[in-house]
Amino acid sequence: MIPPKQRHASSGPFRSPSPIKDERILLVGASGLLGEAVAGKIPPTSSTILPRELTKRIDEAAIIEAVGALRPDILINCAADTDVEGAEADDVRARAVNALLPEALARGARAVGAQFVHFSSTGCYGDWKSGPYVETDAVRPTTAHHRSKVEGEERVFAAHPNALILRLGWLFGGRPGLKKNFIWNRLLEARGAREIKSNPAQFGCPSYVEDVVEQTFSVIENGRAGLFNCVNNGDAASRLDYVVEIFTAAGLNIPVVPVEFQRKARVSPNETAANARLAELGLDHMPDWRASLRAYVASLPLVPPLEPEA
Ligand SMILES: NC(=O)c1ccc[n+]([C@@H]2O[C@H](COP(=O)([O-])OP(=O)(O)OC[C@H]3O[C@@H](n4cnc5c(N)ncnc54)[C@H](OP(=O)(O)O)[C@@H]3O)[C@@H](O)[C@H]2O)c1
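Above: inputs. Below: predicted complex with NAP.
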């Protein structure tokens, strides 16, 4: 059990990064939760989306050639295989998308002198500490998915030593109906429900995808490279705390019942992290997750209520 720990609040006024207008940005994985948010922040004139056909098969030579032809200044990779349970039975796809694809993209970026930006997960640290993990901590992943993410980090830095990798927490945000929209899915689940079950023993850092994108652009604009944790600030949350906060923000009075789900993947009960490196550099602009969550929920259309089933 992770004792909720108050981490430092965001320091200094937030300087919303100006869009990287003059840079040519190549985006991979534009249809996912994070990819859509990145795509929404890049001026269309400076962005190109690498077609899925080119990355479906991980043909490194073809990928390097395609990146070379587009000559980006910055290549941002939001593609990932995020099926954590599925990877336990068969990790071939997870390794291809999370390790081999980023390596090929990083090689392509390096060949044209482009910055390479990639995303990983605070779940990579594993299960060996009781408080938030920092970047200097060892990674001891406990699932096939997180092993593939760690392999991806290693391959990226070997292929492009000046790459930027941000380890993210539990992402929320996106448009209603997007497959990975955690909050919208909980609001749909709550329709007609007498209670919702959630895990009180798994802790992490809920993180707003728009905050992550702004923070990423600010790190890029500061010319930084290397490995960073990038999570919203505020107290550590269990899955149950997170769901309670969603219903509170939505004005729904639904009991959230503690249940520890059995999963195939042994995800660490502690996925919490602190933005130690961002803070050291005076670059930590990540807001408190509860403030971002409330603002996001307030921006959503109302979910039509259903009567609870008898
Ligand atoms: N969501 C979270 O809570 C969370 C937590 C920690 C870290 N992260 C990291 O954040 C990053 C973004 O995650 P996300 O939540 O945005 O994931 P997501 O919503 O599942 O999106 C992943 C995207 O990658 C695409 N993709 C998969 N294989 C591809 C390939 N071969 N070529 C091109 N695109 C491909 C997917 O397309 P299809 O759907 O069509 O396959 C999808 O659009 C990932 O690196 C992830 O590991 C996410």
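The domain at 25-299 is CATH 3.40.50.720 (Rossmann fold).
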